[in-house]
Write a structure and sequence with these properties.
Layout lengths: L5 E5 L6 E7 L8 E2 L7 H7 L3 E7 L32 E9 L4 H4 L2 H10 L1 E5 H7 L2 H16 L4
Parallel strand pairs: 1-3, 4-6
Antiparallel strand pairs: 1-2, 4-5
Bound molecules: zinc ion.
The site of zinc ion has 8 residues, from α1.
Length: about 150
């Protein structure tokens, strides 16, 4: 006889079921959980199409949030343009896929170099918002809606 309860594991990045399940800890009644930062197949597919850029924070977004694991390529850049061993970072859940062809028109060479080598960048919050202000996404969304409805301006 088993009293084990199963939980559906969600992808951290898109919050959709990842396709695996885990056994709930005693007393944990949640039906869905996020276990780690491994992307689902859908998110992996998106990442293969461009440069994955994720926003990270120096502090956990919620108590107990794990940091991105050691061994994750870390694209932090110093003023001197060199890569450094950096302290733990915590993804905020904001991310995007960047067109590799546009890298050098948007980023300085030291960032573009790392992006091309690692196919991903981790941006601390200030830098992420500098390059990708929330307002930008609202404009993109507005354009998309206008296209869909055939609206002009
Ligand atoms: Zn996903």
């Amino acid at each position: 006889m088993s009293t084990e309860k199963w939980q559906t594991v969600l992808c951290f990045w898109c919050r959709e079921p990842r396709g695996d399940r885990s056994i709930a800890e005693p007393g944990d009644d949640r039906l869905e959980v996020i276990r780690d930062y491994r992307p689902c197949f859908h998110c992996m597919g998106l990442r293969s199409e461009g440069i994955f850029i994720a926003e990270v924070a120096s502090e956990p977004g919620s108590p107990g949030q794990p940091s991105l694991q050691e061994g994750t390529p870390n694209a932090n850049v110093t003023d001197a343009g060199t890569e450094v061993q950096s302290p733990p970072v915590y993804p905020t859940g904001n991310w995007l896929i960047f067109d590799p062809d546009g890298l050098r028109s948007v980023f300085p060479d030291e960032i573009a170099d790392i992006a091309e080598a690692q196919h991903q960048l981790l941006f601390h919050e200030e830098l992420y918002r500098l390059y990708f202000p929330p307002q930008l996404f609202q404009e993109v969304e507005a354009e998309r809606l206008a296209d869909e409805t055939g609206g002009v301006n």
